[in-house]
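Q&A log
Question type: sequence-to-structure
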Amino acid sequence: MKKTYVFILSFGLLLGFSVIDSAEAKAKSYTNCTELNKDYKGGVSQSSSSKNKGGKTKYKPFVSKELYNANKSKDRDKDGIACER
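Response status: OK
Response body:
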């Protein structure tokens, strides 16, 4: 009985780690800011503590480190927020 629990727990942990890896791999890279802003109106932020260096923004950015890293080239002012508006 104890071996069964250990097996089920081990299988669950392995399955959980594979789901985490696939979620990181699914960070979509957009070709331009217009496409990114269709899905994320305020852009994508690297962290919740990132501050906008530019002017006022209309929308709050979506926070996702993986998504930001996939679209890092679209952060022209290098403030940690890609395609902010």
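Response note: The mean pLDDT is 86.
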